[in-house]
Design a protein that fits this description.
45% of the residues lie in helices and 18% in strands. The protein is an alpha+beta fold.
Length: 130
Amino acid sequence: MESPRQKKIAALLQLEIAQLLQGAVRQEGVSNLILSVTKVNVTVDLSIAKIYLSVFPQKQAEDIITNLTDNAFQVKHDLAKLLKNQLRKVPELVFYLDDSLDYIENIDRALKGEDNPIIDRDSLEKRKKK
C-alpha cells in the first residue's frame, strides 16, 4: 500500500521523466520512436524509483532501456535540476521495460488465430508435455 507522499512523488517523477525523455528524443531528431512512462513506483523510504517505460517500436526497446540504465546518473542529475524546489533528494532511478501491451497483443492474436487457447487448451505452452 502506497502512502499519499509516495503517490505524489511518483506522479511528479512520472510527469517530469516523460517530458525529459520526450524532449531528448525530439532534440536528437529521432523519428519513429515513441517513449512513454507507464508507471512509477517509489519505495517507502523514497530512495529508489522504479520507472516502467513503454517503447514503440518494440525492437528498439532493449537498446533504449540499456542506454537509460547506463545513463541513469545523467537523467537523475537533469531531474534534480528540474525538481530542486520540489524535492530535497531525487531517488535512484531504475528503468524497466513495460511489456504489458505485447502481452495483450499476444492474447488477442491467440484468440483470433487458429489455435484458440480457450477452445483447445492443449495449444497453450504451459499445457504441452516436455
